[in-house]
Write a structure and sequence with these properties.
Layout (H helix, E strand, L loop, with lengths): L1 E6 L2 E3 L5 E9 L4 E9 L6 E6 L5 E3 L7 E6 L4 E6 L8 E12 L3 E6 L3 E5 L2
Parallel strand pairs: 2-11
Antiparallel strand pairs: 1-3, 3-8, 4-5, 4-9, 5-6, 7-8, 9-10, 9-11
Amino acid sequence: QVQLVESGGGLVQPGGSLRLSCAASGRFFRINDMGWYRQAPGKQRELVATITSGGRTNYADSMKGRFTISRDNAKNTVTLQMNSLKPADTAVYYCNAAEAVSSIRGELVHWGQGTQVTVSS
């Protein structure tokens, strides 16, 4: 099975930066899209950013220009660089990866356990 482990969360002041990393390990055929999602208290989980295996990225509007997603296919990692952080960015951030299982079953979605990001003075 694919295992996703996030790291890099913590407490940061408004305007500060954090870098989240997610490493995939275990046995898998190949991973298609990877992404970051977040969930704030009392809110639904929302998309932060995604990146395809070819490097095509997609960002939620509130993250554009502040967050950057990247991946290293050789190392099976995905990174989220977060700059100009705001209190509204406070949430648990989850790593996501879509594994191509077969042409019949399609993709199998994997999730990390999440890492807490708190933006506060």
